[in-house]
Amino acid sequence: MPCTSHDLSSWPLAIFGRLLNGFMVFSLLALSLFVLPQRAGAEEQEKLKIGFGGALLGNLASYGLSNFYGLEYATLAANAQGGVLGRQLELISQDDSCNPSQAVAAATKLVSDGIKLIFGHTCSGATRSALSVYEDKALLISSSATENSLTDSGNNPFFFRTTPRDDAQASLLVAMIKKNGYKKIAILHDKGDYGKSIAEIVNKLLESQPGLGAQVVLFEGITSGQVSFDSVISKIKNAEAEAIIWGGYYNDAAKLIIQTRQKRVGVTLLGPDGLYDQRFIALAQESAEGTYCAGQVDLSRSEAAQVAVADHQKRYYGKDIGPYFLYAAGAAQALFAAVSKVGSDTDLAAIKKRLHEDTVETVMGPVRFNAKGDIIGASFKLFVVKNGQYVEAPL
After folding, report:
1. Are residues 204 and 82 in the same domain?
2. For residue 268, which of 289, 291, 249, 286 has the smallest C-alpha distance?
3. pLDDT digits (tens, 9 = 90+) for 62-73
4. Which of 120, 176, 189, 324 is 20 to 30 Å apart from 95, CA to CA?
5. Residue 91 is inside which H or E element, if any?
6. Is 270 found in the same domain as 304?
7. Is the domain of 286 the same as that of 312?
């Protein structure tokens, strides 16, 4: 995909119409193809460019869009207050469709454009691949990449995230296994960094708690995007599993649970925040009922959050913000504050220091990062699908 330059204050209403009437994939195609006519001379030079790399197209575009909209809100709000360092912000986006190889291409393009401050990427596998390009050339903040080793490894000192981590949601899934008394567990994953991470953490947690009496009767990776799950469903049935832990995203999970129900295999599906999306319910329909998943805590109760949500819905004719909107907006506000305090958008070491040491009030609440780059104080909650809606599941 070509690099896109968005002047967020002057998008034509035609784009909004397409966002309203089209589906998310189509809408982001419109965004990614729209190029603002370039302004000449010093005015263009004075803009402070920030980057976004993430899933704007493809099956997981709803996640990337939620991130993008949050970043857009924070950018518009900053520009309305005079910008950052006295310069208007310009948002440059690159789609990666949550594909690791496309993430490398997206990151390469953003770095080649000289952009130092970047938000993304959306998915853990894509983020890992992109980080190999950024290294010390740019500072990256993700609002949705949860895989533990992205920060635990210590290999990415200029990487931060405002989302909680995989171990936090894995603990919730194990807690529900304990509460419901499941004894035979099938653990499946999509072989990706994110899905495999969830599966392995849950497996280790169950092994470390023999008192639960929960036995993993099947642990298997399956190919994402496959049409038929007949083979693995037969294994689930033969193993007499009572629950499936799914490591992966909603598109595969929806097919898995539909086919499991069709074969009358009575199991409960539990999964990470990759299932916490209305598109899972839309795809699985009645088969989604009773599914448990981890999801982001509702941050929309504060006045600042409500203003942000109302602004977005006014701009996009009531379009839902998605799960990561406030996390992305909070990430942007924290970074803009750090840049302003440092007085430079290129001194990455100084900006990094401010992110570690300062606490910034944002639309998602106070944001501060620990020594690894993980946000302090963020958490997941567990939800269950009831009557076609996500409802908090008490533990």
Report:
1. no
2. 291
3. 999 999 999 999
4. 189
5. strand 89-95
6. no
7. no
388 and 267 share one domain:
yes
Q: Tell me, yes or no, if the pTM score tops 0.90.
A: no
d(CA 286, CA 162): 33
Question: Is 262 found in the same domain as 306?
Answer: no
Q: Which helix (H) or strand (E) holds 149?
A: helix 149-152
pLDDT at 322 over 80: yes
Query: CB under 8 Å to 82, separation ≥6 — which residues?
Result: none
Quote the CA–CA distance of 179 and 161 in Å, as a whole number.
31
Strand ranges across the sheet with 389-392: 215-221, 184-189, 243-247, 268-271, 292-296, 380-386, 389-392
Is 52 in the same domain as 156? yes
Amino acid (1-letter code) at residue 221: G
In this structure, what CATH number is given to the domain that contains residue 172?
3.40.50.2300
Distance CA 263, CA 249 (A): 22
- Tens-place pLDDT, residues 216-230: 999 999 999 999 999
Scored b (16 or more CB within 10 A) or e, 87-121 reads ebbbbbbbbbbbbbebbbbbbebbbeeebbbbbbb
Q: Tens digits of per-residue pLDDT, 186-216?
A: 999 999 999 999 999 999 999 999 999 999 9
Cβ neighbours for 253, distance < 8 A, ≥ 6 positions apart: 246, 269, 271, 274, 275, 280, 284, 291
Range of the domain at 131: 4-163+300-378
The DSSP bridge pattern shows strands 380-386 and 365-367 to be unpaired
Question: What's the domain count of the chain?
Answer: 2
Q: Are 381 and 294 in contact (CB under 8 A)?
A: yes
Q: Check: CB of residue 99 under 8 Å from CB of residue 15.
A: no
Beta strand residue intervals within 132-197, DSSP E: 139-142, 159-161, 184-189
Pairing of strands 360-362, 292-296: unpaired
Where b means 16+ CB within 10 Å and e means fewer, 250-265 reads: bbbbbbbbbbbbeeeb
Assess contact for 36 and 6: CB atoms under 8 A: yes
Among the listed residues 278, 221, 286, 288, the one whose alpha carbon sits nearest the alpha carbon of residue 253: 288
One domain for residues 156 and 179: no
Greatest Cα pair distance in the chain: 70
Distance CA 364, CA 359 (A): 12
Note whether 19 and 157 are same-domain residues.
Answer: yes
